[in-house]
Structures are given as C-alpha cells and as structure tokens.
Design brief:
Layout lengths: L12 H27 L5 H23 L1 H13 L5 E4 L4 E4 H17 L1 H15 L8 H22 L1 H20 L5 H37 L4
Antiparallel strand pairs: 1-2
Helix pairs in contact: 2-6, 3-4, 3-6, 3-7, 3-8, 4-8, 5-8, 7-8
C-alpha cells in the first residue's frame, strides 16, 4: 500500500493486489514458522491483525518518506529554473506536483529497480519479523524517533541533490539583479525567464545522472545500515 514503486497510483489496483498475493506466497516459506504460532491464537487474532497492519504501514511510510527526497529535490530544481508553475496532478501525493518532479521520480524509480534496491525493501519486510515479533506491540516512541530522523535525512538528501541548481539559482538571480540596476529601462524579466529555463534545463541534463546516483547510493546505505 505504501512502498515506493509497488504502490504507485499508476499501477492498477488489481495488479497491486496480485503483487501482494505473489509476495505473500513467495515469503510464506521463510516466515511461516514465525507467523503460524501466533496465527493459531483464535481469541486474539483480531488484535494481532491490527498490530501487524500498523507495523507494515509504518515501515512502508518510513521508506516512502525517504523516497520523497527525489520529489523534494526536483521541486527545488523546478523553483530555481522557473518551472514551479508547470504542475501536474499526482495521485500518490493527493495534490499538484511540478512536472519536472514527476519526471525525476520516474527516473529515480527506474534507477532503483535497475540497481535492485527493491530487494532491500523486500528484505526489510522479512527482517521486520525478527525486530518486531508477531503479536507484540512495538515501541511507538522508537517509531516516532525513526520517522523524525528519516524526515531530516530525506530533506538533507534532497537539498544536497539539488545543490547545483541552488548555486545556479543564486548566481543567476544575483546577475539578474545587477543587470536590472545597470539597465533599468530594459524589461529584464522577459529576457531572463526564457534564458533561466534554457540554462536550468541544460544544467539539469548535465547533473541529473549524478543526482540519481547519489539518491540510489544514499537509499542503499540507509537501508543496509538498518535505519540506525
């Protein structure tokens, strides 16, 4: 429901259900010794189901928060390039998203699938049964601290990914201010806006490979570190 890539609204609901069913069958051999003893408790089955749903949703949300670094980085880049008004409706976020952000997210998705990062997400599901045993209520405070630290890491990663565009935006706007002071009679805005978009797209085309590589490496290191 919440994992990146698997839970995208562009994927039909029936396909997502089939993916969930196939994943359950594939993991049954690994997890059945852990799950079956708790599943035999008929009296407390409803409570166990609620606990497991909560843990699953929390883990999926945490991974999705980290994945949103790509969206934030692309949104910052859109703002610096003057493309923040070019938006498209994004069902996964429930609102408007810059068109450039949608493009970067699709590219980040392909990079993650190409590098096999989705295997780490599935591995986290398996390991979660060791860290959070079935039918035991996890420590909510630890989850809250993990969400806060993940938010901070995601925002820091987004700013670092968009660093070249931020530097470009500062330099371009300072130069634009000097130009407006030197030639106040010239309509600088009508000249600068197309130039800003042209230079911004050119710079983005040069650094987008590095941005996506940095994103994939940061996501991989974060997953392999056990979310420490």
């Amino acid at each position: 429901m919440l994992l990146p890539v698997f839970a995208e609204e562009a994927v039909p609901g029936r396909i997502r259900l089939l993916i969930g069913f196939a994943m359950s069958l594939a993991l049954w051999g690994l997890l059945s010794p852990t799950v079956l003893p708790a599943a035999g408790n008929a009296s407390g089955f409803a409570g166990i189901l609620v606990i497991e749903l909560g843990v699953g949703l929390a883990l999926g949300m945490i991974v999705r928060v980290m994945f949103q670094a790509a969206v934030m980085a692309a949104s910052i880049a859109s703002l610096q390039m003057g493309l923040s008004s070019a938006v498209i409706f994004d069902p996964s976020l429930g609102g408007q998203t810059p068109l450039l952000a949608k493009l970067v997210v699709l590219a980040a998705t392909l990079v993650c699938l190409g590098l096999g990062l989705h295997h780490l997400w599935i591995g986290a599901i398996i390991r979660s049964y060791e860290i959070f045993p079935v039918a035991e209520v996890p420590n909510v405070g630890d989850f809250a601290a993990l969400v806060v630290s993940t938010l901070a890491k995601s925002m820091g990663l987004a700013v670092s990914m968009a660093g070249p565009l931020l530097v470009y935006g500062i330099i371009f706007n300072v130069a634009l201010g000097f130009s407006a002071r030197l030639a106040p009679t010239i309509q600088v805005f009508f000249i600068a806006q197309p130039l800003n978009i042209l230079l911004g797209i050119a710079l983005l085309s040069v650094v987008i490979g590095t941005m996506l590589t940095a994103f994939a490496v940061a996501m991989s290191e974060w997953m392999q570190s056990g979310w420490a």
